[in-house]
Amino acid sequence: MAWRAALRSKAVIPALLSCSSHGRLCASPTFITQRNNSTSPKIKVDYDQTTGVAVMHMQSPPVNSLSLDFLTELCISLEKLEMDKGCRGLIITSNQPKVFSAGLDILEMYGKSPEHCGEFWKVVQEMWLKLYGSNMVTIAAINGSSPAGGCLLSLTCDYRIMADNPLYSIGLNETQLGIVAPFWFKETMVNTVGHRNTEVALQLGLLYKPAEALKIGLVDQLVPEDQVFSVATQTMTKWLTIPEHARQITKSMMRNPTIDKLRTNREADIQNFVSFITKESIQKSLRMYMEMLKQRKA
Ligand SMILES: CC/C=C\C/C=C\C/C=C\CCC/C=C/C(=O)SCCNC(=O)CCNC(=O)[C@H](O)C(C)(C)COP(=O)(O)OP(=O)(O)OC[C@H]1O[C@@H](n2cnc3c(N)ncnc32)[C@H](O)[C@@H]1OP(=O)(O)O
Questions:
Q1: Of residues 133, 173, 205, 206, which has the active-site annotation?
Q2: Nearest CA-CA partner of 158 in 125, 190, 192, 197
Q3: Does 104 participate in catalysis according to the annotation?
Q4: Which helix (H) or strand (E) holds 183?
Q5: ipTM score of the complex?
Q6: Where are the domains of the chain?
């Protein structure tokens, strides 16, 4: 697709990168935003110009796995919203039943060439840089399970509201797949729940039920499932009353040390990922995990 090719072209990527944390000051004309509601196959964005709040509905069946195409689309949508001065808040939620996001699409990392894995990892980084460094107020309305990359997506937001349903779980469970959360996943979690909670959670690959997630601060609020979205909207209204420049500078102060670490090491991080994920032993672990998922279903 043209937009996907555009995103990956060398001419466009630097423009996208340059706007991750200060999008309104350095907006590139590449994606001058359309201000009306837009739809796309994997993500639907509803933008209400009167409130300045956009809602991203993830709608990629069956489980909103974060594929290369999904993440590319997410990055483009974010870029457009970030460049729109009127857009001050973003709520991310899922249109799929029972699942917020199943995390990175395992099929993007299994049986793929090093080039493909590198391209995939670059867009995973891009998604994180854009969301963690967003100038907008970002709220995750977590209306389903949210393992691994799904948890990371939630953690990049400023506030997390989760459905109080014990069937759902959230956490960075990478070690259960035989893989390792990279330093920026780890630091995003440390910045949220502290070093000790992260150390235990990451080593054991823990997936927390909502009540446990609330207890360690992995989510900020639990609400009945049918109220997740309305509470997210109310919370957004409250956050938007804070003077914008003061809130944004504070957010940057809290997050920039972690962001800068990845930004200055992107290429090395990609090389590290590619050499790790393409190892035969790691590929075997991924295959076994996918088989386990299928057996669990049967
Ligand atoms: C020295 C080294 C140092 C550092 C390391 C260097 C680099 C880092 C290296 C690696 C880092 C990688 C980081 C990875 C992050 C990730 O996000 S990995 C993905 C982890 N995700 C999961 O574990 C979730 C797995 N899925 C589930 O648990 C469940 O599907 C669900 C709870 C989300 C939903 O349950 P159900 O509604 O019951 O749905 P099903 O389980 O039946 O699934 C339907 C369908 O979807 C397929 N699927 C599920 N998840 C994924 C996925 N993540 N990717 C791809 N496909 C997925 C599932 O297999 C089913 O398929 P079908 O059987 O219908 O074909």
A1: 173
A2: 192
A3: yes
A4: helix 183-193
A5: 0.98
A6: 2-297
Which residue do the tokens 């290429």 mark? 267
Cβ(62) – ligand 1 distance below 6 Å: yes
d(CA 64, CA 70): 8
Q: Could you give phi then psi for residue 86, rounded to 5 degrees? A: -80, -15
**CB neighbours of 93 closer than 8 A, spacing ≥ 6?**
55, 56, 57, 58, 100, 140, 141, 142, 143, 228, 229, 232
Q: Are 57 and 21 in contact (CB under 8 A)?
A: no
d(CA 99, CA 151): 11
CA 182 – ligand 1 centroid, Å: 17
Which two tokens mark 180?
């390792």
Is 174 a known active-site residue? Answer: yes
| 2-297 CATH | 3.90.226.10
**Does the active-site annotation cover 225?**
no
User: What is the Å distance from ligand 1's center to 172 Cα?
Assistant: 11
* Nearest to 176, CA basis, from 145, 157, 203: 203
pLDDT profile of the chain (298 residues), mean per 10 = 42 34 30 37 96 98 98 98 97 98 98 98 98 98 98 99 98 98 98 98 98 98 98 98 98 98 98 98 98 91
pTM for this prediction: 0.90
